[in-house]
Amino acid sequence: MSTRKVSIVDVAKEAGVSYQTVSRVINNSPAVREATRRKVQEAIRQLNYHPSLSAQSLKTQRTRMIGVIASQTQYSGPLLTISAIERMARSRNLFVSVATVDESRLNPADFSEIEESFVKLGVEAVVIVAPTEAMVTLAVESHVNIPRVIITAPEGMQQLSSRNFDSSRVKFVSTNQDAVSEQIVHGLRASGIERVLYISGPQQWRDAYTRCHACVRACEHNSLTVQVIDAGDWLSMNSYDKLTALLQADASTVMKNTAIWAANDLLAMGARRALLEAGLDVPGDVQVIGYDDMPGTESLVPPLTTVNPNYEKVGSIAMRLVLDLLGYTAEDDEDDSVEEYTLLDGSDCVYLVEPRLVLRASTLS
After folding, report:
1. Which of 45, 156, 192, 204 lies at 20 to 30 Å from 343 by C-alpha?
2. Number of domains in the chain
3. Given this model, what pLDDT does residue 55 score?
4. Cα distance between residue 242 and residue 248, in whole Å
5. Do 256 and 152 sit in the same domain of this protein?
6. Confidence (pLDDT) at 1
7. What CATH number is associated with residue 21?
8. Which PANTHER family does this UniProt record tie to the protein (predicted)?
């Protein structure tokens, strides 16, 4: 059996066209009739032909490679976002190279070195998943001239987007916290809640203080008292320990007409355990709300009311912005994600995705 690699000439002969026509089909040229395109695609399938990516890159001067820089990938948010970026890139015949970094050891020189390595590989643009202030600063102030999309929380974004950078080559994608926070607090107030005990995540995370500030604003707007407990981390034991200490007094008095709202689902789970051990019923005595809509929260007893941050949509919109920055067309695109964002007031480069409230039995409304 011959082991000769199938060539573009073989495909052309099988389809009964010139090799130039095969090349146009491979490169998605519009200058090919649909019937001819289908015939060439069938020949490619029959012969199991795989075009040479290096040859295509030499001809088009496009590598179709996208870089992703991310930290804190042990958490669900960054992981789901990266997964969405990779899926959408693959659907557009783009290739993703991911670099994960340890923020505690990262400095501007190291960050620039990562981006310069991407440039040497032929990466055309970079998406940076930046959960902390330090990571955002590195992403914005990098001197490497490559188009970039930065995924981060929106708090303070007006000041951030006013920094001296080219907004035609730098875009931001964020999750809008204000509308869903208003929705949550309005529902709590309607069910008789007078006070919200908010359990915050680690304050070096932009998402943690953005969610906290949105909760405080919504409570103040709806005339609810709010108390913030800093858990210092995203882990359930932190909220369990903090709330257990608070409940050492008369638990029913401490939690009267109070709802607990946690910055993520793990913190909500820890709070729920502390409440149950104190003899308080969820949601009869205390309503509990989480954030992230983690798998399994629908199977808790009771199922946890939470917020779905739409991480997949964040990732897909980030990739849409990459396509726009690079001038790639999105023909025959049936994904409507481009419609599901708003621009931050006063900004032409900050795109906000709306999260979704998921009502379950841990709340009464």
Report:
1. 204
2. 3
3. 52
4. 10
5. no
6. 40
7. 1.10.260.40
8. HTH-TYPE TRANSCRIPTIONAL REGULATOR GALS, LACI-RELATED TRANSCRIPTIONAL REPRESSOR
Residues in the chain: 365
pLDDT at position 160 = 61
CB 63 within 8 A of CB 124: yes
What pLDDT, in 10s, does the model give residues 90-137? 888 888 999 988 877 888 888 888 999 998 888 999 999 998 888 888
Look-up of token digits 């590195």 = 138
Residue 210: C-alpha distances to residues 155, 178, 213, 234, 280 (Å): 5, 9, 5, 14, 29
What is d(CA 114, CA 229) in angstroms, rounded to the nearest whole number?
37
Tokens describing residue 78? 């960054």
pTM reported for the whole predicted model: 0.80
Which residue blocks in the chain are alpha helix, DSSP H?
Answer: 8-15, 19-26, 34-47, 53-60, 76-91, 108-121, 133-141, 157-161, 178-190, 206-221, 236-246, 251-254, 265-277, 311-326
Phi then psi for residue 142, to 5 deg, are -60, 140
Alpha carbon distance 238, 242 (integer Å): 6
Tokens of 109: 């020189």
288 and 273 within one domain: yes
Q: Looking at the predicted structure, is the pLDDT value of residue 59 above 60? A: no
Is position 360 within any domain?
no
Q: What residue numbers bound the domain in which 131 lies?
A: 65-174+312-332
Alpha-carbon separation of residue 69 from 79, 211, 261, 350 (angstroms): 12, 23, 31, 19
The conformation of residue 5, written as its DSSP 8-state character, comes to P
Q: Does a structural domain hold residue 116?
A: yes
Q: What is the pLDDT of the chain when averaged over all its residues?
A: 87
Q: Is the pLDDT of residue 164 over 70?
A: no
Write out pLDDT tens, residues 60-76: 556 789 999 998 667 88
Both structure tokens of 215: 């909760």
Q: How large is the average pLDDT for residues 21-30?
A: 78
Amino acid at 297: T
Which tokens in the block code for residue 276? 């149950």
Specify the CATH number for the domain of residue 78. Answer: 3.40.50.2300
Residue 154, preceding peptide bond in cis (omega within 30° of 0): no
The residues near 245 (Cβ < 8 Å, ≥ 6 apart) are none
